[in-house]
Amino acid sequence: MLLSEQVRMVRDEEVFATGATAWDTGGDWKDQKTVNVTLSKTKIVYMGFSLEVNGNYEGAGRILLDGVPVVSSGYNSPEDLISRHMYVVLSAGSYTVKFQTAVWSGSTGNGLRMNDTRVAALNFPDKQRNSWDSTVSCPSGTETTVLNQNFTVPATRKLAVGSIKKYVAVVTVYMWNNYGRRNAVKNAGEPNESSPDGSWFNWRIYVNDTQKDWTERRNDRGTSDGSLGSGVGAYGQLRLVLDPGTTYNLKVKAYNGISSAYNGRAVVEIMLCPWIMTDEDYEPVSLDFPQGSTLYVTIEPLHDNTATKYVRVGKQRFVSFGDSTDYYKALSGTGILEFNYTFETVEVVNSVLHVKGYGGCVSIIGVDAR
Length: 370
Known about the structure:
There is one protein chain. This protein has 370 residues and is mainly beta. The protein has 3 domains: 10-122, Sandwich (Jelly Rolls), CATH 2.60.120.40; 128-273, Sandwich (Jelly Rolls), CATH 2.60.120; 285-368, no CATH class. 1% of the residues lie in helices and 56% in strands. The strands form 7 sheets. Strands 10-21-14-19-18 form a 5-stranded antiparallel β-sheet, with no helix packed on it. Strands 11, 15, 16, 17 and 20 form a 5-stranded mixed β-sheet that branches. Strands 1-28-23-26 form a 4-stranded antiparallel β-sheet, with no helix packed on it. The longest helix is centred in the C-terminal third of the chain and has 4 residues, at 323-326. The protein starts with a strand and ends with a strand.
């Protein structure tokens, strides 16, 4: 009997806005595009953009959700090609999304603009949002905890192929201070910023009191101070694989290297879903079905079809000689990938399903049970 679940609910998908904004040649954050979003039920809303610079301008872009900045590009200069993607779980209701730009230096060319702006809704089961916005006074010369929150991953759920084993968490952080565009985003073991001087907010992220390296990050200063009050807001994103039904602690800390106390603000959005894939191997489900059955998994692009996606049965051995000896079957590539594997001599109970590929998703998962 064939039992499957199409976890990507394509009938629920809708696009609210796409396209480019006008060129910006100077000034602090200004609205470039406003998008009104109305949802009839809880969905995952995608918001994204890329930046283009023409000439010698330097600036940034960001997105606001109901007036709250949720993601920034960090600084963008002529040699950079920056894009930002984020997912937010929103319940039924009406929301306002704004795309903004800021430019603090430059004099030749058209300026800076946002390309590929997109606001869309999609839907998967097993999703959750956690979000916080915290502003704290940070004394000079000390590290201050700007945000300290616990969150609990949803419980597992039984599917025809087995139970959910791991959730993907996409943690997007917007970091700001009221001194100016001096926000440095630091990995574990890195010193505080000292170029061109030590007047920086140095931001770090911790899970269960262990500092994590950011998956993506970008300071906001750029190559020069320019107009220091324009375009304030650094970017960090941390992608994690977490256990269902487990509570985790998240901290965002800032070391203030400026000579006086200033406010630090951290805006955090967490999207939890086992079907939106990340850029590390993980097990979305624990396989549990009769021996001799055939497993079916379809993976496909979400916001990106350039990165390679992977679906594999097996596990990396204690000495790895590559996929051909680590996995009983493996499939990789772009586009829609349809994977199947029949468990004849390989035991279901001793096997592991791995998927990987940020920008893609698991869309269908099922088993032909024998």
